[in-house]
Amino acid sequence: MNQQPGMMYVGEKGSGRRSPLAVGLMFWIFCLGVLVEAKRPPKCPLTCSCTKDSAFCVGSKAIPRTFPMDVISLTFVSAKFTLIPAGAFSHLPTLQFLLLNANQFTYIKDNAFSGLSHLQYLFIENNEIQSLSKDTFQGLRALTHLSLENNKLQALPRGIFKDLRILTDLDLRGNAFHCDCKVKWLIEWLRTTNASIAPVQCASPAKYQGHKVSQLPIKDFACITTEFILYQTLPFQSISVEPFGFADDLYVTFAQTNGGNCTFLKWDHIEMVFKRSENISARAAVYCKPLVIDGQLFVIVAQLFGGSHVYRWDDFGGKFIRIQDIDATKTRKPNDIETFQIEGEWYFVIADSSKAGATTIYKWNTNGFYSHQSLHVWHRDTDVEFVQLDGKPKLIISSSTQTPVVYQWNWARKQFVYQMEIPGMLNVHAVKHFRIKRDMYLCLTQFIGDSKVVKWENHKVTTNQVLPSRGTMIAQPLQIIQWHYLVLGSDFSLSTIYLWDAGEMKFARFQDWNLRAPRSFKLVSIDNFDLVLASSFKGNTVIYKHNIVDLSA
């Protein structure tokens, strides 16, 4: 075909080319299609009925992503999905009303309603929800009406309503609330909120069934409990542990009989653990007792072999220096050391478990310690406890050959004199004391047989409680804030922690620790931590942390 002059063709067959006019025409057709598509409203989901600003969905298997652009009201009934994920409605920022009724979902994830800054009405009713998290309603600051009626909620987490600052109406009816510690915060909140709330009743326990939650007595819910958790493991055996403060730092020293050392650890305030610091070489050490006098640090090192000695810390040299030997004729087989102060004078006493030795008191005289008094010879003493009883200093000495003996300080003679025996307990390995309010108690430890807690009153002791304790070398009372504990170590089974029951005025079993041959328990408090250091003769030395647990949270 011949091209005629003056004629313009859109395209030429077989040439594979298009004229500028053809290209321009196609571009405008494309743009027109885009504009038409852009103006077309989103399709209504198949399971929903929609108007310009609302949608009503029945039997939906998921939350659709296509709704009218300016929808402000959305309802789901008999939906088949089992959970509402985070940000499930974030594509509907104009939503003001949301009803979720008679659906099958059981779980609502955190921030499920994020992005709904205009939502005022939220009704989650007649569903299968058993629990909610504290962040379920996070960000719903425009919400005024909330209904959780007829679900399967047994409790609500503390702080779940914290973001609902203008809430005016709340409905929690029809849920099976279990009224224990977890409902305590709700009782308090119901009494202080300005929102209008339909009466909520307890479903359980039987004691409160049918009672209004808001009217439950707060005092009935003792929701603070405690626990001990393993905090730090120290890779060595030890037979005794002693904490002490020196130069504004916290230290502990462990006597390592098998390792031949007094090992010192220092608290690290940054890493919050004890780290190795110093060391005293001590053959067969059974006790490393620190004593700070006028800013000087002394350590009395008691050994089974090689004699016992006194060391002083030399700041200039940065090491411990041996300054004194303990009289070997009196201290042959040391078993325990106690330090104490009377009328401004410092003393220490060593309990000696050798038949030929004697429990001896030493006094500080500015240059060293000298023998002040020997007492209780020939009795194989195993433990000595210093205590203020009836307003007077006393020493209670335990022995493997007789009942515990009490010595009382004589102010005129400036010595301890025999006062009495504690009857009814032979072969007591150790005695420890504790106070509860004004009452004084003693823990009497037996390795074979039962240990006892006795009450001291008017120069008499009466049995308060008997505790099975076969294989026990130490029964250590501990007070942490208002809680009183008794740790009963055991060589044959788990060590047991008892907690004082103020109502029963006795110890109740509280927790077990897995320790190998425990020999000593000491409490330290530092950086808001309460730590129990436990020495082990046959395993690793360990440190437990005391935790306070709020069951109402």
Unreliable stretches, pLDDT < 50, 5 or more residues?
Answer: 1-39
Strand content: over 45%
The end-to-end distance, rounded to whole angstroms, is: 91 Å
**Strand order, sheet with most strands:** 1-2-3-5-7-8-9-11
Rg on CA atoms, Å: 39 Å
Averaging pLDDT over every residue, what do you get? 90
Q: Categorize the overall geometry.
A: elongated
**Estimated structural class:** mainly beta
Strands, count? 40
For the record, what CATH class of the domain at 44-220 applies? Answer: Alpha Beta
Helix amount, in percent?
Answer: under 10%
Q: Any idea what the CATH architecture of the domain at 44-220 is?
A: Alpha-Beta Horseshoe
GO biological process, one term: regulation of exocytosis
Signal peptide: 1-38
Protein name: Leucine-rich repeat LGI family member 3
Pfam families: EPTP, LRR_8, LRRCT
List keywords for this structure.
single chain, 553 residues, mainly beta, Leucine-rich repeat, LRR (right-handed beta-alpha superhelix), eight-stranded mixed sheet, four-stranded antiparallel sheet, 2 helices, 40 strands, 5% helix
